[in-house]
Design a protein that fits this description.
Blueprint lengths: L14 E5 L3 H13 L3 E5 L2 H10 L4 E5 L7 H11 L4 E6 L4 H9 L4 E4 L4 H28 L3 E3 L2 E3 L2 H14 L5 E4 L6 H10 L8 E5 L8 H6 L16 H5 L3 E5 L6 H13 L1 E2 L8 E2 L3 E6 L3 H6 L5 H7 L3 E3 L10 H16 L5 E2 L1 H9 L5 H16 L3 E2 L6 H8 L14 H15 L4 H8 L3 H11 L3
Parallel strand pairs: 1-2, 1-3, 3-4, 4-5, 8-13, 8-14, 9-10, 10-13, 15-16
Antiparallel strand pairs: 6-7, 11-12
Helix pairs in contact: 2-3, 5-6, 6-7, 13-15, 14-16, 17-18, 18-19
The protein binds adenosine-5'-triphosphate and magnesium ion (MG).
Length: 462
């Protein structure tokens, strides 16, 4: 089925499209790659693959060569015509050197023989993904080459936010459902608007639906509308938010608050692309982009039975993870500039500056309310400073206390930039890539097995 839910999905998991007409091999490959952290989308023909390709961002396509209808070679050509940077791996039962050479010349990233060596396939995918990330990183560096970046009303210079901006640009072109996760005040609504603004639907409606304020008995009618007489009090036809947003984007804010019953209905809309008003026998087709946001841990809610797993997987194809402010504190000064300029304009004051002491205190604070809290703190402080320099005493007592006592939120470890930390991270990454196999990890790291064992001991990595 086109648009099949991925088996495993995570924020920056490689998105792999597997095209195979043999259902058994399709399942084996999907499972193998899914278990190794890939976000797998499946298609059982080239035609289905092309349809998915138009709707979903894909990092790597793995395709069988011989399939009824369009062959893998033809798929390769068509995909590369649409996106010259697309990466495709072909797999075939009847390989000849000549064919392999022709495929590589036509732009295939690799050409594997059946029976498929899953480990080799996975390894090739990892190499391709790594290469694509490098390319993307170069683009981000180009973005960040300027001192700061302004992107659809957001300012940032941290690598993580620049990555978010670059991902928004990429995902916005596709009508993929997007899920924005992040603590309160991290900018989820701004990101949702940016996705819409950067998409081909920017001139169409952007409708906000806050799931936490929908009246429990009326959720379905609010979302999908109702016809006259559908229930007591329904004295006229009512258009729901989905119909209002038709042709544009609907932003489902606080999605984690949507009750299970409404989650089923939402899943159905996403799958069938049609809605039915409460009390109406007929469905209306909708062409709509869904962007959802939540500050809850949906993965955990799934485990605890509070959020539907199938809906989660459907949303999880396009996840944007917004880092909390404390993990990108290098954005602080830039954000301060941004807000102080705004306040100066709004209150017709001179733009305030910030003393070194106040800046340091703000850098050391853990910002549980993130950018929104920063905005509020600065607003109050600039009023108190009355156009002069913002001093430590203009900041809330809480913030000063935390930075004076040097006490950190126990859950938040300060950024560790030591070489040892980098080495530890690199070792973890190599172990992950090698599926936990130490010999392979040592090879990836260019270390002898003994050196790796010593380092594992030193860093207490199991
Ligand atoms: N990168 C940024 N640059 C400029 N302003 C920002 C940025 N991020 C957030 N803001 C501002 O911070 C405030 C909070 O942002 P937003 O409402 O998008 O957060 P949120 O994640 O939706 O929060 P909540 O979970 O509480 O709904 C807004 O005033 C927004 O304009
Ligand atoms: Mg919000």
């Amino acid at each position: 089925m086109a648009g099949d839910a991925p088996v495993v999905a995570a924020g920056d998991a490689p998105r792999v499209l597997v095209v195979e007409d043999d259902p058994v091999l399709l399942t084996i490959l999907t499972r193998y790659l899914g278990q190794r952290g890939c976000c797998v989308v499946r298609a059982s023909s080239a035609a289905e693959a092309l349809e998915l390709f138009a709707h979903t961002p894909i990092d790597v396509t793995v395709s069988d060569v011989r399939m009824p209808g369009m062959s893998g070679h033809e798929l390769l050509q068509e995909v590369r015509r649409r996106d010259p940077e697309a990466d495709l791996i072909l797999i075939t039962a009847h390989s000849s050197v000549k064919e392999a050479v022709a495929a590589i010349q036509a732009g295939a990233a690799d050409y594997l023989e059946k029976p498929v060596d899953c480990r080799r396939l996975h390894h090739t995918i990892q190499m391709i993904v790594e290469r694509r990330r490098l390319r993307q990183r170069v683009r981000i560096l180009e973005l960040g080459g300027r001192d700061s970046t302004v992107f659809e009303g957001m300012v940032a210079r941290s690598r993580r936010m620049l990555e978010v901006f670059s991902f928004i640009e990429r995902i916005a072109e596709f009508p993929t459902t997007t899920l924005i996760m992040g603590e309160s005040g991290t900018g989820k609504e701004l990101v949702a608007r940016a996705v819409h603004q950067r998409s081909p639907l920017r001139d169409r409606p952007f409708v906000v639906c806050n799931c936490s304020v929908l009246a429990p008995g009326l959720i379905e009618s609010e979302l999908f509308g109702h016809v006259r007489g559908a229930f007591t009090g329904a004295d006229r036809d009512h258009k729901g938010l989905f119909e209002t947003a038709n042709g544009g984007t609907i932003f489902l804010d606080e999605l984690g608050e949507l009750p299970l019953g409404a989650q089923v209905k939402l899943l159905r809309v996403l799958e069938n692309r049609e809605i039915r008003r409460v009390g109406s026998p007929a469905s209306v087709p909708v062409e709509i982009r869904v962007v959802a946001a939540t500050n809850r841990d949906l993965g955990r809610m799934v485990r605890e039975g509070e959020f539907r797993e199938d809906l989660f997987y459907r949303l999880n194809v396009g996840v944007i993870d917004l880092p909390p402010l404390r993990e990108r504190i290098e954005d602080l000064e830039l954000l301060c500039e941004h807000f102080l300029t705004q306040f100066a304009r709004r209150f017709a004051l001179d733009k305030a500056s910030i003393s070194v002491g106040a800046t340091n205190a703000m850098r050391g604070y853990h910002w549980p309310g993130n950018v929104r809290e920063l905005c509020n703190v600065l607003e109050r402080a600039s009023i108190m400073a009355n156009g002069g320099e913002i001093q430590l005493e203009h900041l809330p007592a809480d913030l000063r206390r935390q930075s004076e006592s040097g006490e950190d939120d126990p859950e938040v470890s300060p950024l560790d930039l030591s070489l040892e930390a980098a080495e530890r991270d690199q070792i973890r990454r190599a172990l992950d890539s090698a599926g936990g196999r130490r010999v392979a990890a040592a090879r990836l790291l260019g270390l002898s097995r003994r050196t790796l064992y010593r380092k594992l001991d030193k860093y207490g990595i199991r």
